[in-house]
Amino acid sequence: xxxxxxxxxxxxxxxxxxxxxxxxxxxxxxxxxxxxxxxxxxxxxxxxxxxxxxxxxxxxxxxxxxxxxx
Length: 70
What we know:
By secondary structure, this protein is mainly alpha-helical. 61% of the residues lie in helices and 0% in strands. It is built from 4 helices and no strands. The chain has helices at residues 5-13, 21-30, 36-49, 58-67. Helix 2 packs antiparallel against helix 3 and helix 3 (36-49) runs antiparallel to helix 4. The longest helix has 14 residues, at 36-49.
């Protein structure tokens, strides 16, 4: 698991599966290890702290929130 772009590229070049924070949360939700409320909470917290210590693609976080909105 990594969010570091150079490390992701190096791992992919070596044929190693790479997954970041958003992918882990997707898997936890899809595997029913966390429920929808927990998933939404995580996405909202990541959005709230984005561009600080957390640097994730905001559009991906928003896309997931919109997917399960309603």
